[in-house]
Each structure stands twice: as C-alpha cells, then as structure tokens.
Amino acid sequence: MSSSSSSGEVRASHILIKHQGSRRKASWKDPEGRVIKNTTRESAVAQLSTLREDILSGKANFEDVASRISDCSSAKRGGDLGPFGRGQMQKPFEEATFALKVGDISEIVDTDSGVHIIKRTK
Predict the structure, then answer these.
(1) Is 72 a catalytic residue?
(2) 2, 8, 19, 12: which is closest to 111 by C-alpha?
(3) CATH number assigned to the domain covering 3-120
(4) Is 14 among the catalytic positions?
C-alpha cells in the first residue's frame, strides 16, 4: 500500500454482540455458540444500547467494556481493529466509521456479523 492512500484510512475500535442472525454463531467467549444461538437481535440491541449509554455518560470505559463483552477477537485489544481503508470492512460498518469524528461513538450498526457500536480513534 502506498503512503498516498494512508489519508483514506481510519482507525476504530468496536464492541460486537452476535445474535441468532449472525453469520458465524460462535466467538472467543462462546465457542459453542450456545449463548449466541439463543440471543435475539432485539436483545443484542437492547444490551448494546445500555452499554452505549453507560459509555457516553462516563459510567463505563469503551475499551474495558469491549474487552469483557465484545464477541470479536479484537476484544483482547480493547476492541481495536487497527487502521483500515475503504473496501476492507462490511459496508454498513465502513460507512458508519468514516462518518464519525475521531473520539465519537456510533449509533448501533447492523452487519452480517451482528450488532456493533464503533468508536473512531483516528
């Protein structure tokens, strides 16, 4: 990748909650997918909404919540996905991330992986 394209990159962290409709119904904390297969999209959204409110109000820290709750393996890095450019993430995720200002946290974003909240870090 040439350095000229780096201006088109963002960096973000996220918290993912998988549910029955997720493409892969397993995660590092639920390898058999027992919880995920019994989680409706609605309950995943409700859980994530509460977490988002706690983070925005300062009751919780995004990275701490990600490391405990997120169904993505990025949890062990506090949800950090590292830098990425356009075309590397699922479209709704990419669009939400590029629309954020650095430091902002997205509304709930739906992808084939599950439901996310995204924090743009760069």
Answers:
(1) yes
(2) 19
(3) 3.10.50.40
(4) yes
Which pair of tokens denotes residue 51? 């977490």
Domain boundaries, the chain: 3-120
With a CB cutoff of 8 Å and minimum separation 6, the contacts of 50 are none
Q: What is the pTM of this model?
A: 0.93
Angle between helices 62-69 and 41-56 (to 10 degrees): 150
Based on the residue annotation, tell me whether 113 is a catalytic residue of this protein. Answer: yes
Written as six digits, the tokens of 111 are 């992808």
Cα within 13 Å of Cα(35), Cβ side? 11
Candidates 27, 70, 72, 106; catalytic one: 72
pLDDT tens digits for 43-87? 999 999 999 999 999 999 999 999 999 999 999 999 999 999 999
